[in-house]
TrEMBL record:
Source species: Sphingomonas bisphenolicum
EC numbers: 2.7.1.4
Keyword check for Magnesium: yes
Matching InterPro entries: ATPase_NBD (IPR043129), Carb_Metab_Reg_Kinase/Isom (IPR051804), ROK (IPR000600), ROK_cs (IPR049874)
Requisite cofactors: Mg(2+)
Enzyme class: transferase
Catalytic activity: D-fructose + ATP = D-fructose 6-phosphate + ADP + H(+)
Gene3D superfamilies: 3.30.420.40
Keyword line: Magnesium, Metal-binding, Zinc
Name of this chain's protein: fructokinase
Recorded coiled-coil stretches: none
Domain of life where this protein originates: Bacteria
A Pfam family that the UniProt record links to this protein: ROK
UniProt keyword annotation of Methyltransferase present: no
């Protein structure tokens, strides 16, 4: 039997939750549960974790959740969901409902921060023999979320990054009003799945690659990526999710526009290097689950936000 202890992981998404156990970074069992109400969803996940723990104890738990989350350990509502468009989830005690069922160290972060951490350690950030010191992971799907891993740790401050709600310079002639219920034409309101459906009149996956309306979408995403590179000096910007990983043709357009928009100001971003900088996640759809494992490892080592 492996000498590595069992680690528990939870990846909580808007439509489903993955509950998993792993030895080291190897996921050995994973169960999917629909995301319904907090009581039902977190109750089912907690019951499964408890059963697994009784069969063979966990050494630590990592939780990666959709947000926004309160991650300040000094706050009375640490680990709770902040105001969210997800009906019924505002105020839900994510950390308490899951960590409370296991007598082991636990850490919680956003799902995208966890994915960024996994990519930093085992994916794009670990390629080439020299570990990366700054990486951004973006998922573009139903919403747009971004996480950052810097110097081996997820980025936190007053909160966690909420890149989906920044504003970018619009493409000339683009009159689309945006679809974000909070901000209209923030970047999430311009390029996430529901925004594409409203912009195009049909879901984005039904629009052919050659449709010129993709030019405005590529412009918007390139504006966001340029902002990331200019403000954080990230070595990689990984674009995942249904929109990000589902359209390689869109990613090519983004790269072309990014180089043009930067106009040579960042010498490390050229037409020859941009493909290695702006790319899909190396871990693919495993970045999220492995992010929960990475958070559990940090909790076990005493470096997580427990």
């Amino acid at each position: 039997m492996s000498a590595l202890p069992y680690l528990a992981g939870v990846e909580l998404g808007g439509t489903k939750i993955f509950v998993l156990r792993a030895r080291g970074r190897e996921i050995v069992e994973r169960v999917s549960i629909p995301t319904t109400t907090p009581a039902e969803t977190l109750g089912a996940a907690g019951a499964l974790l408890r059963r697994w723990h009784e069969a063979e104890p966990f050494a630590a738990l990592g939780i990666g959740s959709f947000g926004p989350l309160r991650l300040d350990r000094a706050a009375a509502d640490f680990g709770h969901m902040l105001p969210t468009p997800k009906p019924g989830w505002t105020g839900a005690d994510i950390y308490g409902a899951l960590a409370g069922v296991l007598p082991c160290p636990a850490a919680i972060d956003t799902d995208v921060n966890g994915a960024a951490l996994a990519e930093l350690r085992w994916g794009a950030g670990a390629e080439g023999g020299t570990p990366s010191d700054c990486l951004c992971y973006i998922t573009i799907g139903t919403g747009l979320g971004a996480g950052f891993a810097m110097q081996g740790r997820p980025l936190h401050g007053a909160m966690h990054p909420e890149l989906g709600h920044i504003f970018t310079r619009r493409a000339p002639g683009d009159g689309f009003a945006g679809a974000c219920p909070f901000h209209g034409d923030c970047i999430e309101g311009l390029v996430a799945g529901p925004a594409l459906a409203r912009r195009f009149g049909v879901p984005g996956d039904r629009i052919p690659a050659e449709d010129p309306r993709w030019d405005d979408v590529a412009h918007d995403i390139a504006q966001m990526v340029g902002t990331i590179l200019l403000t954080t000096a990230a070595r990689q910007v990984l674009i995942g999710g249904g929109v990000g990983m589902g359209r390689t043709d869109l990613l090519d357009r983004v790269r072309t526009r990014l180089v043009a928009q930067l106009a040579g100001y960042l010498s490390f971003v050229t037409k020859d290097t941009v493909g290695a900088i702006v790319r899909p996640p190396v871990l693919g759809d495993q970045a999220g689950p492995l992010g929960a494992v990475a958070l559990a490892m940090d909790a076990l080592e005493g470096t997580g936000r427990v």
